[in-house]
Request: fold
Amino acid sequence: MPPQCYRCQEFFHHSRFCARAPKCLKCSGGHLTSECTKSAKAPAKVCQLQRPAPCKLLDAPEIPSTQRQTSQNRRRTSGKSERLRARKSKTANNTFLCGSSKKGTNNSLDAKEVMNQMAQMMSNWNANGLKNNLEELKDCIIDYNPDVIGIQETHLRPADRVSIPNYTCHRSDRTTHRGGGTALFVKNSIRHHAILNVSNTFENASIILQLGNNSKITVACIYRPPHGSINTTELDAILIHSNKAFLFGDFNARHPSWNPGRANSNGNILCNWAVGSALDILAPDTPTHFNSRHSNAILDIGFAVNLSHTEVFTINTLSSDHNPVIFDFVTNNALPPILRTLKTTNWIKFQEIISHTIPGNPRIDDLDLAVQNFTSNISNAISASTSTRLITTPHLRLPENIRELIRAKNRFRKL
Reply:
């Protein structure tokens, strides 16, 4: 017997993924069967045949082998489309650490106005799926010129490839089940390296920025799921890497210190930890998370150590139920300007170099030395096979009418 939909009463698909008009099983009316008011004494009518019959599957068609395969493919495609639509209705947590020397927007800050020092801006945005919002994010990067972009709830798998031109990505993907994940994108012109922080109560991607004069700043992008308690010992493990640090993200924590209303358990834990560790709690004065079923809240916050901040504010630019939060900092180190470059590797040339520098079956007397030589040969081969070209063409941007529609949609969703 072929599968039958309990919504439209047609065959070869499931009611979970049905988008057709409903049809009643009892009276063949244009409503769901559960909403039918037909009397129990009235004769039943099979909606497929439009004639009285008590059997739902009377004269149901047989499934030919080719049609059975088509039906299975249709169910897979329908299910995938439904999941894609569900993802597009959501959003991902994005956090920027950015520096701007222009006043092109109302929310940007001129570094010359802050003691002629370099201003670094950090913004937090909950996107709930990075791949679906990547183009909007790239367009926003052009406006705000971030130095470091931190993202929570990326929903990426290790096999997914996501890149932003002129940025290096450091990711921590969730592999146990769907959702979650964090990432940091850093300008290629900024010296930095990734650090590994193992944590069981939150997800994080962490780096250390090297700004010259032996000045180091630890930056951690953190996502704490709504359920469970956060362990502050794991947060302390991030702070030990340098004397300056900034931890920011979506902590799903509420406390009167940054959010009007009652506190939850994680809010109390984080507030006590910040007070005990002499940390600066940085949060905007407007909500960052918008929910039609609950009150709006400030969930995206930051904790700073030995950093001078000048401003914290939100912007309404990206499709999300979270507004990006900008954290602006001042440092004494001017970051080098970013160069838009394109690197191209000739893999045929790389293969030829490797074939001459690495023997097929070498004799290994010293394992450590052999590994070092092997790594060095590969790095040298890549460098010799790669050419770099400076990009001078302007960025491709979304049309202004599309950008205005996106801004209007974001405003209406958060009314």
